[in-house]
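Re: the multi-chain job from yesterday

Posting the exact lines I submitted so nobody has to dig through the queue logs.
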Amino acid sequence: MKNNIKVERAIMNITQEELAKAVSVTRQTINAMEKNKYVPSTVLALKIARLFGKQVEAIFILEDSD
Amino acid sequence: METKLLLPNYYKKIGLVVLLISTALWIYISLSGNDQLIPETNFFAVVNADAAGKSKYFTIDKLNLTYTLIGYLFITGSLLIAFAREKTKDEYIMKLRLSSFQWAVLVNYLLLLLLFLFVYGLDFITVMIYNMFTTIILFMVRFNYLLLKNKLADEK
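And the result, structure tokens for all chains:
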């Protein structure tokens, strides 16, 4: 699964730290997700989508290998 | 994602102190050969083998409680460290924690397989004694290594 958190973050002009705080996780979690090293829980994915005001599918995208 | 099986963060420090005390006692009795830090005391035992190797059940006997004390301190100290929450808790750290447990169990048994193959006779008892504690030690080392690696990668 890939995601475009980094792009959405750039659009909203917020840092990893600010995003982390807004969805109550650590900055490492955001960093790991942006590097595709970590697949978030459904709860976290929904929280991030809600913050960006988009559908989950617009931010988290399945890949062929999934 | 939060598990209820974790203790507050400050237990980590308490655990560390307990662990250091038991390690110091263990090193002391290993070097000095004096394994009677506590004088033999009458104590309840479910099973106790006498000098001839015959097992006695549900007795009160004069027992050497030094190893009991060190074992208790070491295990409780390790458990407190292993099950204390991190200051920042979230699902990624939880993932690191669980994968560290998995790694520790795997590595522990791979090591044990090697030792089974290479260590024989009475020396194998030493392997068994140390193996009682290696899983949790490997976990603590692995988990803290991952946390540190993660933190360093993040600061770059």
